[in-house]
Every structure is written in structure tokens, then in C-alpha cells.
Design brief:
By secondary structure, the protein is α+β, with helices and mostly antiparallel strands. Helix content is 30%, strand content 29%. The strands form seven sheets. Strands 2-1-11-10-7-8 form a six-stranded antiparallel sheet, with no helix packed on it. Strands 13-17-18-19-14-15 form a six-stranded antiparallel sheet, sandwiched between helices. A five-stranded mixed sheet has the order 4-3-5-6-9, with no helix packed on it.
Length: 572
């Protein structure tokens, strides 16, 4: 019985853990290394079980070239992985659940407590407390408000307020340093559990796109509850979010819906709190916590403390998000600058002198620099190679791939005049030197001024447009697939005469896919209309006019792709 393997050499260098959950007693972990690990009741085993349903030497976990494998040692009750009995040797995959007797093991991944949303309380019970966050976040009461009905100072209230202030100060210090968001969320829950006793706690954040709550951190302080699901009332969550309110359920057993959940009964949950993560502008998530083994119920002072801390950490989370976004922006700007420099280095510095042909090329980069490329490659005194291409991708990776293509093209061309063979070779080069999702649309032509003829190959590129003084416009359709999609492709070479006054326009998709208000595209027809009305203009002015019209069409809409043009005009 074989299964998918997940370990490579890099992964084997880290310590693999076996998480152990006995039916009774505390959970534990056991590190797996380069030695066999035996499991069973006998004292000679590496992992000794106090489990009457396990055998003396029940099972072995052994390192292999592939990772780790589990072997049953002829146990009486069998060894099970993910509910299936093991026969012989079984390769283990991260997260596998292993059952030895009544003891559960989790291979290289801790048990994840399930969080389930259920229909719940209508808040008719006197044991429920709902306080709006803004009321809790108000300034501390004046000294007059801290007096007893008899006029004396309410020392208990004062001490409690001072305790809350002290805890907030400690938590603020603990969260002062920046850390990655995922680590920050773990750290936040660690800090909260240190200052507010709870058996279980959950930090949930809204998905920024869908606004759906997602559990990010679950803390189980009571090991006996690790196998229990956490049930949270949908009504509680809805109330906390819609009313921006902190909620205390002092007696869960008084709520019929929650009380009926088996997990609540088994874990004997008797008190819970749910507070919104409000960053002073928006609710970005929730914190839920409950008590079972802890005899004291949560109090309104606990609710005040958790709400104040939730506000503090919500601001910290938002700041961490903004900081990470700024780092990403800085990285993008650096990548952009590098990609721009790479692109500049391989684009032509001068336009070719190739009378009677007037030839001009240019690129306008968008914010996300892509892999647009054009080039002029002299073959001999009467023939000129012209290429335009576009990598499927943006940034440095796209620019580097295009630079590699340019190098390969200049190496093989003009020594290879057969455009079909040349393009097939470039296709295989791109296929073997790039990721599977990378490919290049590519158009290559040779202008022969002695014959006034064009020979070309179109590898999945936007069809160039030829407009002349007479006759309808013509397009140069594909003669093969984009470079790098599949190896061993065949590309057909075609020829076409070029008459006096003819204008040929090569372009990348950034031209025709430029959008107005992110809806209507510039399109082929507008491009053809410009070419039809430009018969009296030189190639450079035709090129500039196309760029101007495209940018005028898009208006304030930011270009989402590079725009590259090559205009070839045969003068009379």
C-alpha cells in the first residue's frame, strides 16, 4: 500500500514531531530523528503507553529514504492510519492520524480543534451581558464616579481599574516590536492568555475580500479539551459585529441551543466572552474565549479588560498589515526598477536605416513592467530581421526570460535563415528554460528590400496589421503556438509582398486591450482607423499618434500591461 510522499531533503533537515493524545492524561510530543521509534506498553519501548488496548510492542515508526514509515508489529488490536488498518509498511504523510489502542498520534502536525458556528442565544437570559465597545473605550470615570452610595471611595472599583490599566500597559509593551502578521497573531493570543485566564481562545479575522470570518489562532490551555470542537453562536457573532458590542455569557448552560451541543456538555463549558476587534474605524475580526475547568465565571470586569485589549491588538494588527503592505510596495518598486533597467538594456537604442523602408519602434511601460520586447537584427545589406514578443508575466522574472530569449535569438539569427527551424528551436529553448506556466507570444519577420517581400512566423502573437493605399487591411494570423507551451512544435513560414505606401504595424496586447473605465477596449478597429489615416506621416509620427490615441482613450484608467509598437512603412 503506497501513498503520496511529501518529504524532500530540505524538509528532512527540520525536526519532525509526533503529537500524542492519550485517552486520559495530558498530551505530549515526541521528536522523530534518524532512529526507529518503538511504541507499545512494554517499558523497553521509546514511547511507553499506559493503554490496555495496545500491545507490548505495538508499532514502529522508522526513517526511510522517502521520509518516515509506520510498521505494525503484529499487534492484537491493529494499528490504524486515518481510519484504515495498516498491513505491512505505510509511508506517513504530514497530518496523518495514527490510532494505537485508544491512543491517538498525529504525524508532524498538531491536532487542530474544530470551530463550528451554530444557531444560539436570543439574549433573553439575565446571565448575558452586552456592552457597546464605544462605552467601554470611554475615558476612565472621574473620582466622583468611584464613590460608594455612602460617599466613600470605592476601593474595589479603583483597584480593578488600576489592574486593567496595568495589564494594558504590559500588553502594550509586549506588542511594541514588529513581527510578521502570522507570528503576531500567535503572539497576541499568547499575551492574552497570560493576562486573562481561559481554557480556550480563538482569534478570527475577516477575509479582506469576502469579509467572512476565518479562525487564525486557536489556543487550548486545557489539554483535555483539545479533541473537543468549539461551538460559537452565530447570533453572538452577528450581534458583536452588527452592534460593535462585547458579549459576556456568564452561564452557557442557560442557553438551550448551546447547551444542547455535545461538546458543551462534555467539556462542561459554563462561561464565554466574544468581543470585536475594532481598530477605531472598522471591525476586522473577533476574539472568543470560554472557561470549563476554571471554576470562576467570566465577569464584567473580564469583559472590559478583553474589550480594551482587543481594541489595542486590532490597532496593532492593522498597523502590521499596513507595514507589510508598505514592505511589499517597496519590494515591488525595487523589482520594477530592476525590470525597467533589464528591459532598457535589451531594447534597441537606435532605429535602423533601411531605405526605402521607414521603421520605428517603442515601448510604454505600465506600473507592472512586463516582458515586452522588440528588436531589429541586420542579416545582410538587403535583409533586416524584426521581432516583437510578449512574455506571459510581469516583473523581473518576465524581463529575465525575455532577456534569455533575446540572447538565444541573437546567437542563432542571422546565421539561421530558415524562420520555421529558428522558431522551433526557440520554442524548445523557452520550454526547457522556464516554468510550466511561462510562455511567450512571438512574431518574427524578415524584410527583404531587394524583393520588397516579407517572410514571417507568428507564434501565437497578436496579428500584425498591414494597411495599404489600395485594398482592405490584412492581418498576419498565427502560424503556430506561443513559445514554451509544448516541445517539438512546428511553425509555418509565410511570405507577403510589401508595396509602396504600405504600413505594417506590429503591437503587443497592451495596445488593443487598453480600457476606458475598465470596460470598453481600444480594440483592433481603432488601431486600423489610425493606420488608414496616417499614409502621409513618417513611421515615428504614426507610432506616437497610436500611443497618444490609446492613452487618450484610457484617460485616467491606469494601464495594466506594457504597450509596444513597431511601425514599418515602405516609402514610394
Amino acid at each position: 500500500m503506497s501513498r503520496r510522499l511529501i518529504y524532500n531533503d530540505t524538509e528532512r533537515t527540520r525536526m519532525v514531531q509526533l503529537f500524542i493524545y492519550p485517552k486520559t492524561g495530558e498530551p505530549s510530543t515526541f521528536p522523530l530523528g534518524a532512529k526507529r521509534v518503538s511504541i507499545g506498553r512494554a517499558a523497553t519501548n521509546d514511547i511507553v503507553l499506559s493503554d490496555q488496548f495496545s500491545s507490548g510492542c505495538h508499532a514502529v515508526i522508522a526513517p526511510t529514504e522517502r521520509g518516515y514509515a509506520l510498521l505494525d508489529q503484529g499487534s492484537k488490536n491493529g494499528t490504524f492510519v486515518n481510519g484504515r488498518r495498516v498491513n505491512g509498511e505505510l509511508d506517513l504523510t504530514r497530518g496523518d492520524e495514527i490510532l494505537v489502542g485508544s491512543t491517538r498520534f498525529y504525524f508532524d502536525r498538531d491536532l487542530q480543534t474544530n470551530l463550528e458556528m451554530v444557531e444560539g442565544t436570543t439574549f433573553t437570559h439575565s446571565s448575558n451581558t452586552i456592552i457597546q465597545v464605544k462605552d467601554i473605550l470611554k475615558k476612565p470615570p472621574s473620582s466622583g464616579a468611584l464613590k460608594t452610595p455612602g460617599g466613600g471611595l470605592d476601593l474595589d472599583r479603583l483597584q480593578q481599574d488600576q489592574k486593567i490599566i496595568a495589564v494594558i500597559g504590559e500588553v502594550s509593551q509586549a506588542l511594541i516590536y514588529h513581527m510578521p502578521l502570522d507570528k503576531l497573531l500567535e503572539h497576541i493570543m499568547d499575551v492574552l492568555t497570560q493576562h486573562l485566564a481561559m481554557d480556550r481562545g480563538v482569534l478570527m479575522l475577516k477575509d479582506e475580500a469576502t469579509q467572512v470570518l476565518e479562525p487564525k489562532v486557536i489556543k487550548i490551555m486545557n489539554g483535555a479539551l483539545r479533541t473537543q470542537s468549539i461551538f460559537v453562536s452565530q447570533t453572538i457573532i452577528k450581534t458583536a459585529l452588527e452592534r460593535n458590542s462585547a458579549i459576556l455569557i456568564s452561564d452557557i448552560q442557560s442557553d438551550e441551543q448551546l447547551r444542547s451541543q455535545a461538546s458543551v456538555v462534555q467539556a462542561q463549558i459554563h462561561s464565554a466572552m466574544c468581543v470585536p476587534l475594532w481598530n477605531n474605524q472598522d471591525i476586522i475580526g473577533l476574539i472568543y474565549c470560554d472557561r470549563a475547568s476554571l471554576l470562576e465565571q467570566f465577569t464584567e470586569d473580564d469583559l472590559r479588560l478583553l474589550t480594551l485589549l482587543a481594541n489595542l491588538v486590532a490597532v496593532k494588527i492593522e498597523n502590521a498589515r499596513l507595514y507589510e503592505e508598505s514592505l511589499k510596495m517597496i519590494q515591488m518598486e525595487r523589482e520594477l526598477a530592476l525590470a525597467v533597467q533589464i528591459q532598457k538594456n535589451f531594447l534597441p537604442r537606435d532605429e535602423p536605416a533601411f531605405a526605402p523602408y521607414d521603421i520605428s519602434g517603442g515601448t510604454r511601460a505600465c506600473y507592472h513592467v512586463g516582458g515586452d520586447y522588440y528588436d531589429f537584427i541586420p542579416i545582410d545589406k538587403d535583409r533586416l530581421g524584426v521581432v516583437i514578443a510578449d512574455v506571459a508575466g510581469v516583473g523581473v522574472s518576465a524581463a529575465l526570460l525575455m532577456a534569455s530569449l533575446r540572447g538565444a535569438l541573437h546567437e542563432k539569427f542571422p546565421t539561421t535563415y530558415n524562420l520555421s527551424e529558428l522558431t522551433a528551436g526557440l520554442n524548445d529553448f523557452v520550454y526547457t528554460s522556464s516554468d510550466s506556466h511561462c510562455f511567450i507570444s512571438f512574431f518574427l519577420l524578415v524584410v527583404d528590400r531587394r524583393k520588397n517581400e516579407l517572410a514571417y512566423v507568428n507564434a501565437g502573437h497578436n496579428p500584425p496589421v498591414l494597411v495599404g493605399p489600395k485594398g482592405p487591411p490584412r492581418v498576419f494570423e498565427s502560424t503556430g503556438l506561443c513559445l514554451g507551451m509544448f516541445p517539438g512544435q512546428v511553425y509555418e513560414e509565410k511570405t507577403l509582398p510589401l508595396g509602396p505606401g504600405d504600413i505594417l504595424c506590429l503591437y503587443t496586447d497592451g495596445i488593443v486591450e487598453a480600457r476606458k473605465d475598465k470596460k470598453e477596449e481600444f480594440g483592433d478597429e481603432r488601431l486600423i482607423d489610425i493606420l488608414k489615416g496616417s499614409g502621409a506621416l513618417p513611421a515615428r509620427e504614426i507610432l506616437e499618434k497610436i500611443f497618444e490615441d490609446v492613452f487618450a482613450f484610457g484617460g485616467a484608467t491606469e494601464a495594466c500591461d506594457d504597450m509596444t509598437l513597431v511601425v514599418i512603412k515602405r516609402n514610394p
